[in-house]
């Protein structure tokens, strides 16, 4: 099982295969980035880069959270509410006696706990993830509404400046997260995500603790979504019990653009990051081109269908003699 | 004991028993709950969810899911007043046009799922996003009032004391139950949900059935949209949003497997009533919106544990 004993050329071959479907995505993202940089040259300055990555960061987090669920063969409808709850907990606790560190811990614990409970229900009670998270979305929204019935709360200014100021801290955090993901994949629980998602029975027979893998993946997914909420709270300087709502759809869109398959076990985090980046850049470019905000939905719908349909169709054509 | 056991193996029956129990207990403990007018009102609300869930049941039986029903309802409710021609006093032309639009949206979903090979959940999600944007661009995003005579009759009239919407629901239920249980098409849908490859190899066209199912789902969502418009007398952006998740919940509460291949609309009917009753009971309890939301979610989860469990495979 250990990755270190695998010969390097095999590793390269495996990685090449995993990258194959993503070449088109990389090209599209690069093209959009070039267009954006031409429209908005400030992107290349430190401040512009920081602002851009800050808008992208929460989307990248929720897309990773959704991708974790989809690698498991499920889908989460509770990502948005989880973001809201993270934002609310941050805004409620950071002004109190707990302080910033306490708030950070509270948000993380809430995310891990709710994710683990959801994962436990899905894994041990055998309910489909889509329905459990559907019910969970109502419960989580309710908790957020009780904690903070209307937008408010308090985030210390220095904390907002640190995360969402004029320095690319968000980008650095994203890089750290990706390194963390690589390390997690080197553990049995991380590797198990792909095995259990692709073929749960086969994975179980070969000794993968399928249930535990699921619970851990769900917990991590909850943590990522809650941290996205924390970041959004830092960005806006306050908490809002419904601020996360659009993130549910966007997280699915980003993950799908990034090439994560719905049936589980197929997809890469680098693709997911690119998918969320594409979504984020696309929104920015359309804004700069002067499209009305709603046109963004139209384009988003078309791009999602295109992103899934085009590779399917080309592979079909290639298969024909 | 044996009867109890078989009831537990029969989710539609179980859900129906749950509804009856809840209604009896609530009528005895809450004043006004058991009044004819109130129960009739609950059925009227259930009719809307039940009709949306009719299409949703069919799609889920085939192993798909339709996340665009909310958007289709909104589109119908907003476009119908705009496209009903003034020269037609009955308003039937507008209804036919609106149902045509709703069905063609469903058809497009089917094209995406069948020919472009986009998974239904993504296709319908993308469609919902697309419609959300198109609607604001086309209709401008303001609320529209309805003057269409038939639509208002459908939403407000009570022939023989029964709301017209409930009568419509009964008609829809009969048709859908006949499709699923008495027609070859229903058998094909269930077979597709259980094992698409085997079904295709036995000569059933996956593509044609997918197209048919999504068109039907669009049609039923459109029908529900017209009913909602008649009850509200106004269409606005977002009017259909609450019905997306509730339609899925009603299907699952009725014991239909979200993975497809197993279930019946006979379960969705009590599922829809149960959902509406639950919401009504939560409203009676004087709680803040947050607690209401928590109770609703917990109740769905609890009901799922009873009736919606996937069989161990």
From TrEMBL, chain A:
Membrane topology: Multi-pass membrane protein
UniProt signal peptide: none
Superkingdom, taxonomy of origin: Bacteria
CDD domains in UniProt: TM_PBP1_transp_AraH_like
InterPro entries, per database record: ABC_transp_permease
Pfam family, one: BPD_transp_2
Transmembrane segments: 24-44, 56-79, 85-115, 127-149, 169-194, 215-235, 247-265, 272-291
Sorted UniProt keywords: Cell inner membrane, Cell membrane, Membrane, Transmembrane, Transmembrane helix, Transport
Main location: membrane
Annotated localization: Cell membrane
Function: Part of the ABC transporter complex LsrABCD involved in autoinducer 2 (AI-2) import. Probably responsible for the translocation of the substrate across the membrane.
Subunit comment: The complex is composed of two ATP-binding proteins (LsrA), two transmembrane proteins (LsrC and LsrD) and a solute-binding protein (LsrB).
Protein name: Autoinducer 2 import system permease protein LsrD
